[in-house]
Amino acid sequence: MTYTASWRSPSNIALIKYWGKHSLQLPRNPSVSFTLSACHTTMTIMVSPNAAQPNLTVKYDGQAKPSFEPKINSFLSILKERFPWLADAAVEIDSHNSFPHGAGIASSASAMSALALCLMDIHDQINANIGDHDELWWQNVSEIARIGSGSACRSVFPVISIWGETPAAKESNDLYAIPWEHQLATVYKDYCDAILIVSSEEKSVSSSAGHKLMDSLPYAATRYSEAYKNIESLCKSMQVDNELDQFISIIESEALQLHALMMSGKDPYILMEPGTLSIIKEVWRFRKTSGIPVCFTLDAGPNVHLLYPSKHSTDILEWINTTLTQYCAEGRYILDRVGSGPVKIA
Ligand code: DP6
After folding, report:
1. How many helices (H) and strands (E) does the chain have?
2. Cα 44 to averaged position of ligand 1 atoms, centre (Å)
3. Which helix (H) or strand (E) holds 244?
4. 207 lines ligand 1 (CB under 6 A)
5. CA angle 131, 134, 138 (to 5 degrees)
6. Strand 333-337 and strand 192-196: pairing?
7. What's the gap in Å between 118 CA and the centre of ligand 1?
8. How does DSSP assign 31-67, residue by residue?
9. 51: which residues sit within 8 A by CB, 6+ positions away?
10. Greatest extent of the chain over all pairs of C-alpha atoms, in Å
11. Cβ–Cβ < 8 Å for 45, 119
């Protein structure tokens, strides 16, 4: 018997950054992210339990990708206790990212959350569970996604989610993310994210290596306590519509801190490119002259995410096209916005 599941799951952009981990992908500080919409992974998995030849095949757009297999294999091994049928199953995974390969956009959050969803779905089929996807179900998905890639646990909830224990959100904990949309002021519910592709090269330093760098950084403890403070202030400001100044100041400080940490180790590295800095300066100039509350955030890479309220979309698009595309690789950018979370396809 072969079981099949297909899910689409979005990427997310962290506002308070997860940078530093311990044990099995447990965070050193709480983080919060917007769930995106246009940037997502669509994944189908086929599982034959009790296979004569248990194995794993990973494809991307229908083409074999053996280089992805070791990471997924070790993820599946960890999950065997939870999903005993994995022990002797033949598993085939095929996925597709909506964002172009080589856009410098990390796919681990969308891919690992899609994989967690597919595995939970297959588990339900094997065990003939036909109940609703209740709160506990989504918690389980988020926890499984976390084991695959920390930030992936935040991708499973609509609009915004918090991962890691913080007084800012009741029920928050280190094992899985929790949804936070119900607390959010209206302005943030359809916030926009224009992703400026400054470089389309693959990331030169993996997130895992970056997290590891924190273990030996003299500033690590200070950074973690900053993140704890920042998430509390941010969550307060995001519950009202007119606290955008506070929101902007925390978001940009978090982005710059992330990169400052990477530059401070014994083996430092710089992931910003000259274009990244030029865009940051343009953002500061434009915000001052136009009065439009646009701000930037950064991932562990050179691309810049411009965050702004949707009512300013027309002005922002014009500004991107006239002023910012000169700093983008082949003029490329992706217009994204907060989204409604994963979708079951089949
Ligand atoms: C800078 O989730 O990619 O994007 O848990 O090792 O898979 P692993 O790391 P990952 O780290 C994400 C780091 C970040 C910030 C964030 O998304 O919070």
Report:
1. 9, 14
2. 24
3. helix 244-263
4. yes
5. 120
6. antiparallel
7. 21
8. EEEEEEEEEEEEEEEEEETT-SS-EEEEEETTEE-GG
9. 88, 89, 90
10. 67
11. yes
- CB 11 less than 6 A from any atom of ligand 1: no
Distances (CA, A) of 30 to 107, 164, 166, 332: 21, 4, 6, 32
Structure tokens that stand for 28 in this block? 């050193």
pLDDT digits (tens, 9 = 90+) for 30-81: 999 999 999 999 999 999 999 999 999 999 999 999 999 999 999 999 999 9
State how far the Cα of 109 lies from the Cα of 100, in Å rounded to an integer. 15
Q: Identity (one letter) of the amino acid at 2?
A: T
Cβ atoms of residues 273 and 296 within 8 Å: no
User: Vertex 62, ends 59 and 64: CA angle to 5°?
Assistant: 40
Cα(290)–Cα(275) distance, integer angstroms: 22
Tokens of 200: 């389309």
Res. 102 pLDDT band, cuts 50 70 90: low
pLDDT of residue 130: 81
Alpha-carbon distance of 20 to 39, in angstroms, equals 25
Buried-state track 297-326, b at ≥16 Cβ within 10 A, e below 16: bbbbbbbbbbbbbeebeeebeebbeeebee
Radius of gyration from C-alpha coordinates of the chain:
20
What distance in angstroms lies between residue 158's CA and the mean position of ligand 1's atoms?
19
